[in-house]
Fold this protein.
Amino acid sequence: MSIAIIGVGQQHRGDDAVGLEAVRLWMKSYPHHAQNPNFLIVFVESPIVDIIEFFDKIDFAIVVDAIKGCKNPGEIYLSNDLDEMKMMVRSTSTHGIGLIETIKLMKMINPAFLSTEIVLIGIEIEQTNLGEKLSPLVEASLPKVVELIEETILKYISQFREN
């Protein structure tokens, strides 16, 4: 069983860094999982380049990213259905080709990706201004995002043990 926790974002682009910050906070809050050799912790700024190289080595992935959708800043999206997630948001990424498009493309190109279960945690953003920090509403969502990451891991581990 290999699990990847993937924080996506651009550190110096305001709320776009929320995926990176959420995974960093999760690592501090749950070091027993973060230091587990079965866990792969990844921080990426360009999903199509950085995710492709390791995705076929994992069984389960939680991807945390900034989302520009229809909710209020700081609200959270959670889905394991790529098509459902795509319909819920106007633009699923601030990184050129979107994260969902990247994952769907990988699944078409390489059949090994088909067996990887993926859960997306998206945080609605307010701004992506160069040099800005997280906006207050987005920053306030971090504890809930960290809880969702851990709850999702525990649920997967429980299901894995049952099978």
In short: The two ends are 12 Å apart (CA to CA).
